[in-house]
Amino acid sequence: MIIEQIYTGCLAQGAYYIESKGEVAIIDPLREVQSYIDSAKKNNAKIKYIFETHFHADFVSGHVTLAEKTGAKIVFGPTAKTYFDAIIAEDKQVFNVGNITITVLHTPGHTMESTCYLLKDENGKDHALFSGDTLFLGDVGRPDLAQKGDLTQEDLAGFLFDSLRTKVMTLADDVIVYPAHGAGSACGKNLSKETVGTIGNQKETNYALRENMTKAEFIKEVTDGLLPPPAYFPLNVKLNKEGYKSIEDIIKVSAKPLSVKDFEIIANETDAIVLDVRHQSEFIKGFIPQSIFIGLGGTFAPWVGALIKDIKQPILLVTPEGKEEDTITRLSRVGFDNVLGYLDGSFGSWRKANREIDTLHSVSAETLETKMRENPIVFDVRKPGEYASEHIENISNTPLDFLNEHISEFPKKQNFYVHCAGGYRSVIAASILKARGFHNVIDVSGGYAAIKKTGIKRTAAVCPSTLK
Q1: Does the pLDDT of residue 212 top 80, yes or no?
Q2: Would you say residue 187 has pLDDT above 80?
Q3: Contact 275, 287 (CB under 8 A)
Q4: Whose CA, among 72, 121, 271, 421, lies 20 to 30 Å from 289?
Q5: Are 58 and 185 in contact (CB under 8 A)?
Q6: pLDDT score, position 35
């Protein structure tokens, strides 16, 4: 028996390759599926099933393409409704893969079709639970994404409580837990950085699995502090239900090198966003005016999804040379398939053509410290949890996720500073603000990590957020 976790850090997502006696099951595959096919071929095995734990909101799964390429059957849990051929399994239905079995455990709560898959080894012993977004390490799936009609997030949280108590916590302590996500995913509130655990460990450490926890307590704690989900979530659910183009077809259409002249023409004649994915240190030194920075070096795809509201938005790319197809692939993972091409020769060709460039004013934390006696305007664009743990005294929190909703709060004329934890998110924020005409924005290089090394006054007290 082979179990391989294929973890993608950019999405904080775990897909799984399971093989026994020449038969393979894939759980929650990424949209680019060739690596699964190659692994099976290398082992002279055949992909038999593609198990989906639910209709994913944070990425486009590869189930449809993988089924088309291999003939494998797609399996969803009870109540799922698809626009393509799939097995809609019954609760406790058993699937054979070589000499192991995979049992369907319907666990509604995160979504109504949410399902865990219990793998039993060749001796019939419970070995591993592929828990999807039902159970994470340290957390559980958020219950607010599948609200419909009269169904509230409190109703879903109640279903999740029952699912965990009747289907998950009844398993033996030594059963391995393989979740769909780790730290960094927006599908939960406080996920662990670990990506593999056990049922026993989660019973001891996961707040949502406390032994004497009441349903009312669970509902309150699981729903407390939930931030609005990113705008692209329901659009990804739609693609996962209805189907999509293969990533190979997307690359054929999108990976078009454009001369400076052609790039300009398309930018001027369409409503395309110019998305610059180089490192923030390069972007600061020079970029195409009104372009937006979201660097490949960070959690690129989720930030694109959070900040660009429409997955059909036309996009023109400025990438490091050689990273064009990688960028298109990573955009497609979250459903952004409308790339019109990329600047041939990267930003260097723009400079050589003597076209207008813009730069971003960035200062050190030490420089900010010298300015503090003048009571400067400072915006902290970290997440609320980061801000609550510690922040500069007397400044409020404007998380990057919701920057578009708070544009009116930034001053038009007076200089202001933005910082994040390390310098990646603040450059994203500054680029968006510059594109909106806020040329008085100043980035704080190194972010809060650098600020902590100065004498700037800080506090750990929880203060009101600008979100409220």
Answers
A1: yes
A2: no
A3: no
A4: 421
A5: yes
A6: 96
DSSP state of 400: G
Residues 195, 5: contact at Cβ < 8 Å? Answer: yes
DSSP 66-125: HHHHH-PEEEE-TT---SS--EEPPTT-EEEETTEEEEEEE-TTSSTT-EEEEEE-TTS-
CA 291 from chain center: how many Å? 22
Reported as a single tens digit per residue, the pLDDT across 436-447 is 999 999 999 999
Q: Is the pLDDT reported for residue 432 higher than 70?
A: yes
Tens-digit pLDDT profile for residues 319-342 = 999 999 999 999 999 999 999 999
Q: How far apart are CA 359 and CA 417, in angstroms?
A: 15
End-to-end CA, the chain? 51
| 321: phi then psi, degrees, rounded to nearest 5 | -60, 135
Token pair, residue 325, equals 């197809």
d(CA 260, CA 322): 17
SS3 404: helix
Specify which residues 106 forms β-bridges with: 115
Q: How far apart are CA 314 and CA 273, in angstroms?
A: 6
Helix (H) or strand (E) holding 63: helix 63-70
Give Cα separations from 158 to 51, 108, 154, 216, 220 (angstroms).
25, 9, 6, 8, 10
Dihedral, CA atoms, 363, 408, 231, 149, nearest 10 degrees?
A: 150
Complete domains list, the chain, with CATH: 2-234 (3.60.15.10), 245-352 (3.40.250.10), 362-459 (3.40.250.10)
Closest CA to 295 of 182, 191, 435, 430: 430
Give Dmax (Cα) for the chain.
Answer: 72
